[in-house]
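Hi W., the zinc ion complex you wanted:
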Amino acid sequence: MPDTFGSGATALVSIGSLVTNDPFHGTGPLGLITDAALVVEDGRITWVGSSADCGPADHVIDLDGRVVLPGFVDSHAHPVFAGDRAGEFAARMAGEQYAAGGIRTTVAATRAATDEDLRARLARLTSEFHASGITTFEAKSGYGLTVHDEQRSLRLAREVTDETTYLGAHVVPQEFADDPEAYVSLVTGAMLDACAPHARWIDVFCDRGAFGADQARTILAAGIERGLLPRIHANQLQHGDGIRVAVEMGAASADHCTFASDEDLALLADSGTVATLLPGAEFSTRSPYPDARRFIAAGVTVALATDCNPGSSYTTSMPFCIAVAVRDMHMTPDQAVWSATAGGARALRREDVGVVAVGARADLLSLNAPSHTHLAYRPGVDLVDRVWQAPLTPKVAP
Ligand SMILES: [Zn+2]
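Structure:
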């Protein structure tokens, strides 16, 4: 579990390099402050500045020159499921292609699992997220695909995060294979009624083998009508209308964007929609990576997330995603670190995380490294020293 700050004021001092993501406060795009300090009280940051200027506090933590960053914000994850698909992964690495239909294997295992089993698995993944420095994560349903199983997935997810996403429209389940429109009616009807009280977001997998653009519009519109905020899985498997639908519907984020045309990038750049790139998915399906540098050059806001799921990206490690994004998506280390913190916060429309600033949540991590660049420079090495998280206030749905 992450550390929590005690009562009274706690000062973190002798921070070798502090990533604030506040360019008005520090230098460069990450707003770096060297030889920095910060003060935390009641779970919020109350002061940020130079170590030499830091006043007295009730508790002092000496970082001895380490790097401190805002906790990572993972804006795309599917941690509520049972079973695993290691065999499918091995077959894929032996040459078979990834298809959206593999989701049904996890659906069968999830439906058969008890609440206790799902809760225990979720707890394990939550502690993995924390160990990798993630302090805010999104959790989608989408492996239940019945009214009961979608609702219980969200109810369990809400026990560990405020950022819950209703993804009844993950794939058409086997029992509706002959009548997908009837499944869309369920997703926008009784299933939505049962799930909306437990969710903040609504999502749809708009791609080959999943849902078409018109179905995606219908599903997102129904969720918006119920007060949910839209986000979307778009353009993972092929060029398509997913990004256009995201922008049209005012989605906070279009996720994957593996195949994006220049026109798609122009649409994103002119919108409030973030492109969330998921390097673990390309890595684990041996697919071509999107060129993040091209997105950034076009003026698109980019987030990085784990896409933690048993089929196509079974990782909980944001440092891994940063390293792959730098190596294979052509991001600079600065860009990747920004996208894994401030970018993720934008994708979740959050201003209180992903930044080290007065008033922000005291969600922080320190690295056993002299620079944030080491996250990509030393791939596969566990550099996370300590992780702090302000108390969560999980909502208990009626
Ligand atoms: Zn996903």
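DSSP finds 14 helices and 16 strands in the chain.

W.
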